Protein backbone atom coordinates (compact mmCIF):
# COMPACT_ATOMS: atom_id res chain seq x y z
CA UNK A 1 0.00 0.00 0.00
CA UNK A 2 1.06 3.58 -0.61
CA UNK A 3 2.45 5.73 2.19
CA UNK A 4 1.39 9.17 0.99
CA UNK A 5 -1.07 10.21 -1.74
CA UNK A 6 -1.30 13.61 -3.40
CA UNK A 7 -4.94 14.58 -4.00
CA UNK A 8 -4.78 16.76 -7.14
CA UNK A 9 -8.21 18.32 -6.84
CA UNK A 10 -10.45 20.47 -4.65
CA UNK A 11 -13.90 20.61 -3.12
CA UNK A 12 -16.01 17.65 -2.12
CA UNK A 13 -14.15 15.10 -4.23
CA UNK A 14 -10.85 16.07 -2.61
CA UNK A 15 -12.43 15.58 0.82
CA UNK A 16 -13.88 12.25 -0.35
CA UNK A 17 -10.46 10.97 -1.47
CA UNK A 18 -8.74 12.22 1.69
CA UNK A 19 -11.23 10.27 3.80
CA UNK A 20 -10.58 7.12 1.77
CA UNK A 21 -6.83 7.58 2.27
CA UNK A 22 -7.23 7.91 6.03
CA UNK A 23 -9.40 4.79 6.22
CA UNK A 24 -6.63 2.90 4.44
CA UNK A 25 -4.00 4.27 6.82
CA UNK A 26 -2.42 6.42 4.09
CA UNK A 27 -1.34 10.06 4.54
CA UNK A 28 -3.08 12.56 2.26
CA UNK A 29 -1.54 15.70 0.77
CA UNK A 30 -3.80 18.52 -0.41
CA UNK A 31 -3.09 21.23 -2.95
CA UNK A 32 -4.92 24.54 -3.13
CA UNK A 33 -5.25 27.76 -5.05
CA UNK A 34 -5.37 31.17 -3.42
CA UNK A 35 -9.18 31.01 -3.60
CA UNK A 36 -9.14 27.74 -1.60
CA UNK A 37 -6.60 28.66 1.07
CA UNK A 38 -9.15 28.06 3.84
CA UNK A 39 -11.10 25.26 2.14
CA UNK A 40 -12.20 22.06 3.86
CA UNK A 41 -9.91 19.77 1.86
CA UNK A 42 -6.92 21.82 3.04
CA UNK A 43 -8.01 21.43 6.64
CA UNK A 44 -8.71 17.70 6.38
CA UNK A 45 -5.39 16.72 4.75
CA UNK A 46 -2.22 15.78 6.60
CA UNK A 47 -0.25 18.34 4.60
CA UNK A 48 -1.22 21.09 2.18
CA UNK A 49 0.70 23.03 -0.48
CA UNK A 50 -0.15 26.18 -2.42
CA UNK A 51 -0.37 25.84 -6.20
CA UNK A 52 -0.92 29.45 -7.29
CA UNK A 53 -3.64 31.98 -8.14
CA UNK A 54 -7.31 31.06 -8.45
CA UNK A 55 -7.31 30.66 -12.24
CA UNK A 56 -7.32 26.89 -12.99
CA UNK A 57 -4.51 27.24 -15.53
CA UNK A 58 -2.30 28.62 -12.77
CA UNK A 59 -3.35 26.15 -10.10
CA UNK A 60 -5.27 22.90 -10.53
CA UNK A 61 -4.31 22.60 -14.21
CA UNK A 62 -0.65 23.48 -13.57
CA UNK A 63 0.85 20.03 -14.01
CA UNK A 64 4.45 21.05 -13.37
CA UNK A 65 3.58 22.71 -10.09
CA UNK A 66 1.55 19.68 -9.01
CA UNK A 67 4.47 17.38 -9.78
CA UNK A 68 6.82 19.70 -7.89
CA UNK A 69 4.56 19.44 -4.84
CA UNK A 70 4.44 15.64 -5.18
CA UNK A 71 8.24 15.54 -5.09
CA UNK A 72 8.54 18.00 -2.25
CA UNK A 73 6.01 16.08 -0.16
CA UNK A 74 7.56 12.68 -1.04
CA UNK A 75 4.26 11.31 -2.37
CA UNK A 76 4.29 7.87 -3.94
CA UNK A 77 0.86 8.12 -5.62
CA UNK A 78 -1.55 10.72 -7.01
CA UNK A 79 -5.35 10.68 -7.16
CA UNK A 80 -6.82 13.18 -9.66
CA UNK A 81 -10.49 13.06 -8.54
CA UNK A 82 -12.76 14.17 -11.39
CA UNK A 83 -12.50 17.20 -13.67
CA UNK A 84 -9.31 19.23 -14.09
CA UNK A 85 -6.53 16.75 -15.04
CA UNK A 86 -8.41 13.54 -14.18
CA UNK A 87 -8.79 12.48 -17.83
CA UNK A 88 -5.55 13.94 -19.18
CA UNK A 89 -3.55 11.12 -20.73
CA UNK A 90 -0.50 13.37 -20.88
CA UNK A 91 -0.73 14.09 -17.16
CA UNK A 92 -1.23 10.42 -16.33
CA UNK A 93 1.72 9.48 -18.53
CA UNK A 94 3.89 12.07 -16.82
CA UNK A 95 3.06 10.45 -13.48
CA UNK A 96 4.32 7.04 -14.53
CA UNK A 97 6.92 8.06 -17.10
CA UNK A 98 10.52 9.14 -16.85
CA UNK A 99 10.19 12.88 -16.31
CA UNK A 100 12.32 15.41 -14.47
CA UNK A 101 10.28 14.73 -11.34
CA UNK A 102 10.27 11.52 -9.33
CA UNK A 103 7.84 8.99 -10.79
CA UNK A 104 4.68 8.39 -8.78
CA UNK A 105 1.81 5.95 -9.17
CA UNK A 106 -1.26 7.15 -11.05
CA UNK A 107 -4.54 6.19 -9.36
CA UNK A 108 -6.74 5.57 -12.36
CA UNK A 109 -6.75 3.63 -15.62
CA UNK A 110 -3.66 3.38 -17.78
CA UNK A 111 -2.73 6.48 -19.81
CA UNK A 112 -3.23 4.46 -23.00
CA UNK A 113 -6.87 3.78 -22.12
CA UNK A 114 -7.44 7.39 -21.04
CA UNK A 115 -6.09 8.54 -24.40
CA UNK A 116 -8.27 6.09 -26.33
CA UNK A 117 -11.53 6.80 -24.53
CA UNK A 118 -10.82 10.49 -23.89
CA UNK A 119 -10.88 11.09 -27.61
CA UNK A 120 -14.63 10.78 -28.10
CA UNK A 121 -14.20 9.99 -31.79
CA UNK A 122 -11.77 7.15 -31.05
CA UNK A 123 -14.09 5.97 -28.27
CA UNK A 124 -16.97 5.72 -30.76
CA UNK A 125 -14.80 3.53 -32.97
CA UNK A 126 -13.84 1.33 -29.99
CA UNK A 127 -17.51 0.92 -29.09
CA UNK A 128 -18.39 -0.04 -32.65
CA UNK A 129 -15.53 -2.55 -32.69
CA UNK A 130 -16.87 -4.18 -29.52
CA UNK A 131 -20.33 -4.46 -31.07
CA UNK A 132 -21.93 -1.68 -29.05
CA UNK A 133 -24.29 0.54 -31.09
CA UNK A 134 -23.40 4.24 -31.36
CA UNK A 135 -25.50 7.31 -32.18
CA UNK A 136 -25.21 8.17 -35.91
CA UNK A 137 -22.61 10.91 -36.39
CA UNK A 138 -19.12 11.83 -37.55
CA UNK A 139 -16.02 9.70 -37.12
CA UNK A 140 -13.51 12.43 -37.99
CA UNK A 141 -12.46 15.47 -35.91
CA UNK A 142 -13.98 18.84 -36.75
CA UNK A 143 -12.83 22.38 -36.08
CA UNK A 144 -14.07 25.92 -36.61
CA UNK A 145 -14.13 26.56 -40.35
CA UNK A 146 -15.20 23.06 -41.37
CA UNK A 147 -18.41 22.80 -43.38
CA UNK A 148 -20.66 21.82 -40.51
CA UNK A 149 -23.78 22.82 -42.42
CA UNK A 150 -23.21 20.06 -44.94
CA UNK A 151 -22.34 17.52 -42.25
CA UNK A 152 -25.43 18.37 -40.20
CA UNK A 153 -27.71 18.03 -43.23
CA UNK A 154 -26.26 14.59 -43.87
CA UNK A 155 -26.90 13.45 -40.29
CA UNK A 156 -30.30 15.13 -39.98
CA UNK A 157 -31.46 17.79 -37.52
CA UNK A 158 -31.35 18.26 -34.62
CA UNK A 159 -27.64 17.61 -34.11
CA UNK A 160 -25.45 17.67 -31.02
CA UNK A 161 -22.09 19.40 -31.48
CA UNK A 162 -19.66 18.04 -28.91
CA UNK A 163 -16.13 18.47 -27.63
CA UNK A 164 -13.98 15.54 -28.73
CA UNK A 165 -12.02 15.84 -25.48
CA UNK A 166 -15.14 16.60 -23.46
CA UNK A 167 -17.56 15.07 -21.05
CA UNK A 168 -19.91 16.04 -18.25
CA UNK A 169 -22.01 18.21 -20.55
CA UNK A 170 -19.18 20.70 -21.12
CA UNK A 171 -18.53 21.71 -24.72
CA UNK A 172 -21.91 20.45 -25.92
CA UNK A 173 -24.40 22.52 -27.92
CA UNK A 174 -27.51 21.54 -29.85
CA UNK A 175 -28.43 22.94 -33.27
CA UNK A 176 -32.06 22.32 -34.15
CA UNK A 177 -31.82 23.76 -37.64
CA UNK A 178 -29.31 25.25 -40.08
CA UNK A 179 -29.62 28.74 -38.57
CA UNK A 180 -28.23 27.53 -35.23
CA UNK A 181 -25.25 25.53 -36.51
CA UNK A 182 -22.54 28.18 -36.66
CA UNK A 183 -23.42 29.70 -33.31
CA UNK A 184 -23.59 26.27 -31.64
CA UNK A 185 -20.23 25.34 -33.14
CA UNK A 186 -18.56 28.53 -31.87
CA UNK A 187 -19.90 28.12 -28.35
CA UNK A 188 -19.07 24.42 -28.18
CA UNK A 189 -15.51 25.05 -29.40
CA UNK A 190 -14.97 27.95 -27.02
CA UNK A 191 -16.32 26.01 -24.05
CA UNK A 192 -14.27 22.95 -24.99
CA UNK A 193 -11.10 25.03 -25.21
CA UNK A 194 -11.84 26.69 -21.86
CA UNK A 195 -12.59 23.48 -20.00
CA UNK A 196 -10.45 20.86 -21.74
CA UNK A 197 -7.82 22.90 -23.59
CA UNK A 198 -8.90 21.35 -26.89
CA UNK A 199 -11.43 22.88 -29.30
CA UNK A 200 -11.79 19.75 -31.48
CA UNK A 201 -15.43 18.79 -32.09
CA UNK A 202 -17.58 16.00 -33.47
CA UNK A 203 -21.28 15.80 -34.36
CA UNK A 204 -24.00 13.30 -33.52
CA UNK A 205 -27.68 13.10 -34.20
CA UNK A 206 -29.46 14.62 -31.23
CA UNK A 207 -31.98 12.17 -29.78
CA UNK A 208 -34.96 14.22 -28.72
CA UNK A 209 -36.36 12.22 -25.81
CA UNK A 210 -33.95 9.57 -24.50
CA UNK A 211 -32.98 8.38 -21.07
CA UNK A 212 -29.35 8.86 -20.08
CA UNK A 213 -28.24 5.60 -18.46
CA UNK A 214 -24.67 4.71 -17.50
CA UNK A 215 -22.96 1.52 -16.36
CA UNK A 216 -20.32 1.42 -13.60
CA UNK A 217 -17.44 -0.90 -14.42
CA UNK A 218 -14.35 -1.74 -12.39
CA UNK A 219 -11.24 -3.59 -13.44
CA UNK A 220 -7.69 -4.29 -12.27
CA UNK A 221 -4.30 -4.77 -13.89
CA UNK A 222 -4.63 -8.56 -13.67
CA UNK A 223 -7.46 -8.95 -16.19
CA UNK A 224 -10.38 -9.03 -13.77
CA UNK A 225 -13.44 -6.89 -14.50
CA UNK A 226 -16.90 -6.52 -12.96
CA UNK A 227 -19.88 -4.22 -13.29
CA UNK A 228 -21.72 -2.55 -10.41
CA UNK A 229 -25.02 -1.91 -12.10
CA UNK A 230 -26.39 1.11 -13.88
CA UNK A 231 -27.50 4.65 -12.99
CA UNK A 232 -30.21 6.83 -14.52
CA UNK A 233 -28.82 10.35 -15.01
CA UNK A 234 -31.56 11.77 -17.23
CA UNK A 235 -32.52 14.68 -14.95
CA UNK A 236 -30.27 17.33 -16.52
CA UNK A 237 -30.09 21.04 -17.17
CA UNK A 238 -27.90 22.24 -20.04
CA UNK A 239 -26.76 18.60 -20.47
CA UNK A 240 -25.37 18.50 -16.93
CA UNK A 241 -26.82 16.21 -14.30
CA UNK A 242 -29.01 17.33 -11.41
CA UNK A 243 -30.44 14.08 -10.04
CA UNK A 244 -29.17 10.52 -10.41
CA UNK A 245 -30.53 7.21 -9.19
CA UNK A 246 -29.93 3.48 -9.23
CA UNK A 247 -31.33 1.15 -10.33
CA UNK A 248 -32.66 2.83 -13.46
CA UNK A 249 -36.35 2.56 -14.33
CA UNK A 250 -35.86 0.40 -17.40
CA UNK A 251 -36.92 -3.13 -18.29
CA UNK A 252 -34.86 -6.07 -17.07
CA UNK A 253 -34.17 -7.29 -20.62
CA UNK A 254 -32.88 -3.89 -21.71
CA UNK A 255 -30.81 -3.62 -18.52
CA UNK A 256 -29.19 -6.97 -19.18
CA UNK A 257 -28.31 -6.14 -22.80
CA UNK A 258 -26.97 -2.72 -21.82
CA UNK A 259 -24.75 -4.06 -19.04
CA UNK A 260 -23.47 -6.93 -21.19
CA UNK A 261 -22.50 -4.49 -23.96
CA UNK A 262 -20.76 -2.16 -21.49
CA UNK A 263 -18.81 -4.99 -19.90
CA UNK A 264 -17.84 -6.23 -23.36
CA UNK A 265 -16.48 -2.81 -24.29
CA UNK A 266 -14.57 -2.41 -21.01
CA UNK A 267 -13.13 -5.91 -21.27
CA UNK A 268 -12.18 -5.35 -24.89
CA UNK A 269 -10.02 -2.32 -24.07
CA UNK A 270 -8.52 -3.91 -20.95
CA UNK A 271 -9.99 -1.43 -18.51
CA UNK A 272 -8.16 -1.35 -15.17
CA UNK A 273 -9.83 1.03 -12.67
CA UNK A 274 -13.19 2.66 -11.95
CA UNK A 275 -14.93 3.79 -15.13
CA UNK A 276 -18.36 4.66 -16.46
CA UNK A 277 -19.86 3.84 -19.85
CA UNK A 278 -22.61 6.32 -20.65
CA UNK A 279 -25.45 5.49 -23.02
CA UNK A 280 -28.64 6.97 -24.41
CA UNK A 281 -31.68 4.74 -24.15
CA UNK A 282 -34.42 5.33 -26.72
CA UNK A 283 -37.36 2.99 -26.20
CA UNK A 284 -35.95 -0.53 -26.18
CA UNK A 285 -32.70 0.50 -27.92
CA UNK A 286 -29.51 1.94 -26.48
CA UNK A 287 -26.51 3.74 -27.96
CA UNK A 288 -22.98 4.34 -26.68
CA UNK A 289 -22.43 7.98 -25.73
CA UNK A 290 -18.99 8.17 -24.09
CA UNK A 291 -16.77 6.60 -21.46
CA UNK A 292 -15.54 8.51 -18.43
CA UNK A 293 -12.18 7.12 -17.36
CA UNK A 294 -12.39 8.39 -13.78
CA UNK A 295 -14.52 8.32 -10.69
CA UNK A 296 -17.92 9.88 -11.41
CA UNK A 297 -19.62 12.59 -9.36
CA UNK A 298 -22.55 10.19 -8.89
CA UNK A 299 -20.47 7.17 -7.79
CA UNK A 300 -22.16 7.64 -4.42
CA UNK A 301 -25.46 6.02 -5.37
CA UNK A 302 -23.62 2.91 -6.59
CA UNK A 303 -21.71 2.72 -3.31
CA UNK A 304 -24.95 2.99 -1.35
CA UNK A 305 -26.65 0.11 -3.20
CA UNK A 306 -23.72 -2.20 -4.02
CA UNK A 307 -21.74 -1.80 -0.79
CA UNK A 308 -18.39 -1.19 -2.50
CA UNK A 309 -16.21 1.82 -1.64
CA UNK A 310 -15.15 2.79 -5.15
CA UNK A 311 -12.51 5.32 -4.14
CA UNK A 312 -10.76 2.94 -1.77
CA UNK A 313 -11.02 0.30 -4.48
CA UNK A 314 -9.31 2.65 -6.93
CA UNK A 315 -6.42 3.14 -4.51
CA UNK A 316 -6.03 -0.57 -3.74
CA UNK A 317 -6.05 -1.58 -7.40
CA UNK A 318 -3.54 1.16 -8.27
CA UNK A 319 -1.29 -0.23 -5.54
CA UNK A 320 -1.24 -3.53 -7.44
CA UNK A 321 -3.88 -5.56 -5.64
CA UNK A 322 -5.99 -7.92 -7.75
CA UNK A 323 -9.73 -7.39 -7.54
CA UNK A 324 -10.79 -9.15 -4.33
CA UNK A 325 -14.33 -10.05 -5.42
CA UNK A 326 -15.96 -11.65 -8.45
CA UNK A 327 -19.21 -10.65 -10.15
CA UNK A 328 -21.08 -13.38 -8.30
CA UNK A 329 -19.93 -11.99 -4.94
CA UNK A 330 -21.75 -8.65 -5.25
CA UNK A 331 -25.37 -7.66 -5.80
CA UNK A 332 -27.39 -4.48 -5.30
CA UNK A 333 -29.66 -3.79 -2.36
CA UNK A 334 -32.42 -1.20 -2.26
CA UNK A 335 -32.54 2.09 -4.13
CA UNK A 336 -30.42 5.27 -3.97
CA UNK A 337 -30.93 8.82 -5.25
CA UNK A 338 -28.43 11.67 -5.47
CA UNK A 339 -29.40 15.36 -5.68
CA UNK A 340 -26.69 17.84 -6.63
CA UNK A 341 -26.77 20.99 -4.55
CA UNK A 342 -25.28 23.65 -6.82
CA UNK A 343 -24.69 27.37 -6.34
CA UNK A 344 -27.09 28.34 -9.10
CA UNK A 345 -30.36 30.19 -9.57
CA UNK A 346 -32.81 27.97 -11.48
CA UNK A 347 -35.25 30.90 -11.60
CA UNK A 348 -32.72 32.77 -13.75
CA UNK A 349 -31.62 30.13 -16.22
CA UNK A 350 -29.47 28.25 -13.67
CA UNK A 351 -27.28 31.31 -13.47
CA UNK A 352 -24.14 30.66 -11.37
CA UNK A 353 -24.25 32.16 -7.88
CA UNK A 354 -20.71 32.32 -6.49
CA UNK A 355 -20.07 33.91 -3.11
CA UNK A 356 -19.69 33.21 0.59
CA UNK A 357 -21.86 30.64 2.33
CA UNK A 358 -23.12 32.38 5.45
CA UNK A 359 -25.04 29.43 6.91
CA UNK A 360 -24.84 25.70 6.18
CA UNK A 361 -26.87 22.95 7.83
CA UNK A 362 -26.91 19.50 6.22
CA UNK A 363 -29.62 16.88 6.77
CA UNK A 364 -28.96 13.60 8.53
CA UNK A 365 -30.89 10.61 9.83
CA UNK A 366 -31.48 7.10 8.45
CA UNK A 367 -30.33 6.50 4.90
CA UNK A 368 -28.91 10.00 4.37
CA UNK A 369 -25.37 10.82 3.21
CA UNK A 370 -23.98 14.28 2.36
CA UNK A 371 -20.68 14.62 0.51
CA UNK A 372 -19.50 18.22 0.73
CA UNK A 373 -16.64 20.58 1.42
CA UNK A 374 -18.94 23.46 2.34
CA UNK A 375 -19.37 25.10 5.73
CA UNK A 376 -20.54 28.45 7.06
CA UNK A 377 -17.91 30.94 5.96
CA UNK A 378 -16.64 28.89 3.01
CA UNK A 379 -16.47 30.37 -0.47
CA UNK A 380 -17.92 29.24 -3.79
CA UNK A 381 -15.34 30.81 -6.16
CA UNK A 382 -16.48 31.86 -9.63
CA UNK A 383 -13.48 30.15 -11.22
CA UNK A 384 -14.68 26.60 -10.53
CA UNK A 385 -17.69 24.32 -10.78
CA UNK A 386 -20.82 25.36 -8.88
CA UNK A 387 -21.23 22.12 -6.88
CA UNK A 388 -21.74 22.73 -3.15
CA UNK A 389 -22.79 19.29 -1.96
CA UNK A 390 -24.20 15.94 -3.00
CA UNK A 391 -27.24 14.78 -1.08
CA UNK A 392 -27.48 10.99 -1.32
CA UNK A 393 -30.33 8.95 0.14
CA UNK A 394 -30.95 5.21 0.35
CA UNK A 395 -34.20 3.33 0.82
CA UNK A 396 -35.33 -0.27 0.82
CA UNK A 397 -37.23 0.60 -2.36
CA UNK A 398 -37.63 3.61 -4.62
CA UNK A 399 -40.64 5.00 -2.80
CA UNK A 400 -38.74 5.08 0.48
CA UNK A 401 -35.67 6.61 -1.17
CA UNK A 402 -37.74 9.34 -2.80
CA UNK A 403 -39.55 10.10 0.47
CA UNK A 404 -36.18 10.44 2.17
CA UNK A 405 -34.97 12.75 -0.57
CA UNK A 406 -38.01 14.98 -0.04
CA UNK A 407 -37.46 14.98 3.72
CA UNK A 408 -33.72 15.63 3.48
CA UNK A 409 -34.15 18.49 1.00
CA UNK A 410 -36.61 20.07 3.41
CA UNK A 411 -33.94 19.89 6.16
CA UNK A 412 -31.08 21.18 3.99
CA UNK A 413 -30.24 24.85 4.57
CA UNK A 414 -27.67 26.92 2.68
CA UNK A 415 -27.58 30.71 2.88
CA UNK A 416 -25.42 33.38 1.28
CA UNK A 417 -25.68 32.02 -2.26
CA UNK A 418 -28.65 30.84 -4.27
CA UNK A 419 -28.84 27.08 -4.63
CA UNK A 420 -30.76 24.37 -6.43
CA UNK A 421 -32.39 23.21 -3.17
CA UNK A 422 -35.78 24.95 -3.65
CA UNK A 423 -35.88 23.77 -7.26
CA UNK A 424 -35.02 20.19 -6.30
CA UNK A 425 -37.82 20.16 -3.74
CA UNK A 426 -40.27 20.81 -6.57
CA UNK A 427 -38.56 18.44 -9.00
CA UNK A 428 -38.33 15.38 -6.73
CA UNK A 429 -41.97 15.81 -5.72
CA UNK A 430 -43.13 16.06 -9.34
CA UNK A 431 -45.37 13.20 -10.59
CA UNK A 432 -43.10 12.48 -13.57
CA UNK A 433 -40.14 11.89 -11.27
CA UNK A 434 -42.34 9.86 -8.94
CA UNK A 435 -43.28 7.59 -11.87
CA UNK A 436 -39.67 7.36 -13.06
CA UNK A 437 -40.74 8.05 -16.64
CA UNK A 438 -38.57 11.16 -17.01
CA UNK A 439 -36.11 11.67 -19.87
CA UNK A 440 -33.38 14.18 -20.67
CA UNK A 441 -35.81 16.99 -21.72
CA UNK A 442 -37.89 16.63 -18.53
CA UNK A 443 -36.16 19.41 -16.59
CA UNK A 444 -36.53 21.80 -19.52
CA UNK A 445 -40.24 21.07 -19.77
CA UNK A 446 -40.55 21.35 -16.00
CA UNK A 447 -39.13 24.87 -15.79
CA UNK A 448 -41.29 25.98 -18.71
CA UNK A 449 -44.52 24.45 -17.45
CA UNK A 450 -44.00 25.47 -13.82
CA UNK A 451 -42.09 28.72 -14.29
CA UNK A 452 -44.24 30.62 -11.80
CA UNK A 453 -43.66 28.03 -9.06
CA UNK A 454 -39.92 28.01 -9.76
CA UNK A 455 -39.78 31.81 -9.65
CA UNK A 456 -41.84 31.86 -6.44
CA UNK A 457 -39.28 29.54 -4.81
CA UNK A 458 -36.56 32.19 -5.22
CA UNK A 459 -36.32 35.83 -4.15
CA UNK A 460 -36.51 38.57 -6.75
CA UNK A 461 -33.08 39.28 -8.24
CA UNK A 462 -31.21 42.44 -7.38
CA UNK A 463 -31.73 44.89 -10.24
CA UNK A 464 -30.28 48.22 -11.24
CA UNK A 465 -32.99 49.97 -9.19
CA UNK A 466 -31.83 48.17 -6.04
CA UNK A 467 -28.11 47.94 -6.61
CA UNK A 468 -27.27 50.66 -4.11
CA UNK A 469 -29.38 49.11 -1.37
CA UNK A 470 -28.61 46.60 1.34
CA UNK A 471 -28.70 43.20 -0.43
CA UNK A 472 -28.37 41.09 2.74
CA UNK A 473 -31.13 38.71 3.74
CA UNK A 474 -32.23 37.47 7.12
CA UNK A 475 -34.84 35.10 8.49
CA UNK A 476 -37.13 36.06 11.33
CA UNK A 477 -39.34 33.71 13.33
CA UNK A 478 -42.61 35.25 14.54
CA UNK A 479 -45.60 33.96 16.51
CA UNK A 480 -49.09 34.85 15.31
CA UNK A 481 -51.90 33.68 17.59
CA UNK A 482 -49.62 31.00 18.99
CA UNK A 483 -48.52 29.65 15.59
CA UNK A 484 -44.91 29.95 14.44
CA UNK A 485 -44.11 31.51 11.03
CA UNK A 486 -40.74 32.11 9.39
CA UNK A 487 -40.33 35.16 7.17
CA UNK A 488 -37.32 36.24 5.15
CA UNK A 489 -36.35 39.92 4.87
CA UNK A 490 -34.37 41.14 1.88
CA UNK A 491 -32.52 44.34 2.75
CA UNK A 492 -34.31 47.66 3.19
CA UNK A 493 -36.43 47.11 0.05
CA UNK A 494 -38.03 43.93 1.35
CA UNK A 495 -41.42 45.54 1.94
CA UNK A 496 -41.74 46.66 -1.68
CA UNK A 497 -39.77 44.01 -3.53
CA UNK A 498 -42.66 41.57 -3.75
CA UNK A 499 -46.33 41.81 -4.55
CA UNK A 500 -48.92 39.86 -2.55
CA UNK A 501 -46.10 38.07 -0.71
CA UNK A 502 -44.73 36.42 -3.86
CA UNK A 503 -41.31 37.11 -5.36
CA UNK A 504 -41.38 38.61 -8.82
CA UNK A 505 -40.94 36.17 -11.66
CA UNK A 506 -38.37 36.83 -14.35
CA UNK A 507 -38.55 36.47 -18.09
CA UNK A 508 -35.29 34.58 -18.29
CA UNK A 509 -34.82 31.78 -20.80
CA UNK A 510 -34.47 29.06 -18.17
CA UNK A 511 -32.65 26.38 -20.11
CA UNK A 512 -30.58 27.63 -22.99
CA UNK A 513 -28.08 29.64 -20.99
CA UNK A 514 -29.55 32.80 -22.51
CA UNK A 515 -29.73 35.30 -19.67
CA UNK A 516 -31.75 38.49 -19.99
CA UNK A 517 -31.40 41.40 -17.55
CA UNK A 518 -34.20 41.34 -14.99
CA UNK A 519 -36.15 44.23 -13.45
CA UNK A 520 -39.40 44.93 -11.59
CA UNK A 521 -41.30 45.27 -14.88
CA UNK A 522 -41.19 42.93 -17.84
CA UNK A 523 -37.41 43.03 -18.42
CA UNK A 524 -37.53 46.79 -17.88
CA UNK A 525 -37.85 47.36 -21.63
CA UNK A 526 -37.52 51.09 -21.09
CA UNK A 527 -34.01 50.64 -19.71
CA UNK A 528 -31.19 51.94 -21.85
CA UNK A 529 -28.68 49.48 -20.40
CA UNK A 530 -27.91 45.82 -21.10
CA UNK A 531 -26.53 44.46 -17.83
CA UNK A 532 -24.62 41.34 -16.87
CA UNK A 533 -26.92 38.92 -15.03
CA UNK A 534 -23.92 37.16 -13.45
CA UNK A 535 -20.33 37.37 -12.33
CA UNK A 536 -18.02 36.16 -15.09
CA UNK A 537 -15.54 36.94 -17.83
CA UNK A 538 -16.57 38.61 -21.08
CA UNK A 539 -15.48 36.29 -23.90
CA UNK A 540 -17.38 37.86 -26.82
CA UNK A 541 -19.02 41.18 -27.65
CA UNK A 542 -21.15 40.92 -30.78
CA UNK A 543 -22.40 44.46 -31.18
CA UNK A 544 -20.70 47.80 -31.52
CA UNK A 545 -21.73 51.42 -31.31
CA UNK A 546 -24.25 52.23 -34.03
CA UNK A 547 -25.45 48.63 -34.56
CA UNK A 548 -29.19 47.99 -34.67
CA UNK A 549 -30.02 44.98 -32.48
CA UNK A 550 -33.30 43.08 -32.25
CA UNK A 551 -35.12 41.98 -29.11
CA UNK A 552 -33.59 38.61 -28.18
CA UNK A 553 -30.43 39.04 -30.27
CA UNK A 554 -27.22 37.74 -28.70
CA UNK A 555 -24.97 40.72 -27.98
CA UNK A 556 -22.33 39.19 -25.68
CA UNK A 557 -21.09 35.93 -24.20
CA UNK A 558 -19.96 35.61 -20.58
CA UNK A 559 -18.02 32.66 -19.17
CA UNK A 560 -19.13 31.81 -15.64
CA UNK A 561 -18.06 28.67 -13.80
CA UNK A 562 -16.78 27.22 -17.09
CA UNK A 563 -20.12 27.67 -18.87
CA UNK A 564 -20.62 29.99 -21.83
CA UNK A 565 -23.74 32.12 -21.29
CA UNK A 566 -25.32 34.13 -24.11
CA UNK A 567 -26.50 37.61 -23.14
CA UNK A 568 -29.39 38.90 -25.25
CA UNK A 569 -30.76 42.35 -25.97
CA UNK A 570 -33.99 42.99 -24.04
CA UNK A 571 -35.45 45.28 -26.70
CA UNK A 572 -34.91 46.42 -30.26
CA UNK A 573 -32.75 49.52 -30.58
CA UNK A 574 -29.46 51.06 -31.64
CA UNK A 575 -26.38 50.44 -29.51
CA UNK A 576 -24.90 53.67 -28.20
CA UNK A 577 -21.78 52.35 -26.50
CA UNK A 578 -19.96 49.19 -25.43
CA UNK A 579 -18.96 49.42 -21.77
CA UNK A 580 -16.71 46.33 -21.47
CA UNK A 581 -13.74 44.71 -23.16
CA UNK A 582 -13.18 41.07 -24.06
CA UNK A 583 -11.38 39.35 -21.20
CA UNK A 584 -12.76 41.74 -18.59
CA UNK A 585 -14.28 40.36 -15.39
CA UNK A 586 -17.75 41.74 -14.65
CA UNK A 587 -20.05 41.53 -11.66
CA UNK A 588 -23.80 40.95 -11.55
CA UNK A 589 -25.47 44.14 -12.72
CA UNK A 590 -22.40 45.51 -14.51
CA UNK A 591 -23.10 47.56 -17.64
CA UNK A 592 -22.24 45.68 -20.83
CA UNK A 593 -23.78 47.86 -23.53
CA UNK A 594 -26.04 50.90 -23.62
CA UNK A 595 -28.69 51.93 -26.12
CA UNK A 596 -28.46 55.23 -27.96
CA UNK A 597 -30.92 57.86 -26.76
Explained architecture:
By secondary structure, the protein is α+β, with helices and mostly antiparallel strands. It folds into five domains: about 5-105, Rossmann fold (3-Layer(aba) Sandwich); about 135-205, ATP-grasp fold, A domain (Dna Ligase, domain 1, 2-Layer Sandwich); about 210-455, ATP-grasp fold, B domain (D-amino Acid Aminotransferase, Chain A, domain 1, 2-Layer Sandwich); about 460-495, no CATH class; about 515-595, OB fold (Dihydrolipoamide Acetyltransferase, E2P). The protein is about 25% helix and about 30% strand. It contains 16 helices and 35 strands. Strand 6 (about 160-165) and strand 7 form a beta hairpin. About 50% of the residues are buried.
What layout of secondary structure does this protein have?
Elements: E1 4-7, H1 11-23, E2 27-33, H2 40-44, E3 47-52, H3 63-72, E4 77-79, H4 89-96, E5 105-106, H5 111-118, H6 120-130, H7 148-155, E6 159-167, E7 170-175, H8 181-196, E8 201-205, E9 211-219, E10 225-237, E11 240-246, H9 252-268, E12 274-282, E13 285-292, H10 299-306, H11 310-318, E14 335-342, E15 344-345, E16 351-352, E17 355-356, E18 359-361, E19 368-372, E20 379-380, E21 387-395, H12 398-411, E22 413-415, H13 421-429, H14 431-435, H15 442-449, H16 451-456, E23 473-480, E24 483-490, E25 498-499, E26 502-503, E27 514-515, E28 529-531, E29 536-541, E30 548-549, E31 554-560, E32 563-568, E33 573-578, E34 585-586, E35 591-595
Parallel strand pairs: 1-2, 1-4, 2-3, 4-5, 27-32
Antiparallel strand pairs: 6-7, 6-8, 9-10, 9-12, 10-11, 11-14, 12-13, 14-21, 15-16, 17-20, 18-22, 19-21, 23-24, 25-26, 28-35, 29-31, 29-34, 30-33, 31-32, 33-35
Helix pairs in contact: 4-5, 6-9, 12-13
Amino acid sequence: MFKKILVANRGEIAVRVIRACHELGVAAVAVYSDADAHAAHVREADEAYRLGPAAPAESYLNAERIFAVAGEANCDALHPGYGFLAESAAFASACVGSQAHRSIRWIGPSPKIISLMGDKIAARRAAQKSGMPVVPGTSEPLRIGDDLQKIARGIGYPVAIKAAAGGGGKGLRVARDAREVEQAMRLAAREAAAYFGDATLYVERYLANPKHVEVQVFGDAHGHLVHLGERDCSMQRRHQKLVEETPARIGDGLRSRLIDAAVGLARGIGYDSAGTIECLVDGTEFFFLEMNTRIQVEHTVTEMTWGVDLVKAQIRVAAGEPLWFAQSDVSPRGHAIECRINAESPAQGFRPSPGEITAFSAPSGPGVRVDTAAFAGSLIPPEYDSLIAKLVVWGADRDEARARAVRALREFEVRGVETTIPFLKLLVADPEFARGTYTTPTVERFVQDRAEEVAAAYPAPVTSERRGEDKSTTQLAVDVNGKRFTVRIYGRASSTSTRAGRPRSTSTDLMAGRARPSSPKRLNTDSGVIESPMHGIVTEVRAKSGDLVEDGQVVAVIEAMKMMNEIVAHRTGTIGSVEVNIGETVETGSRLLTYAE
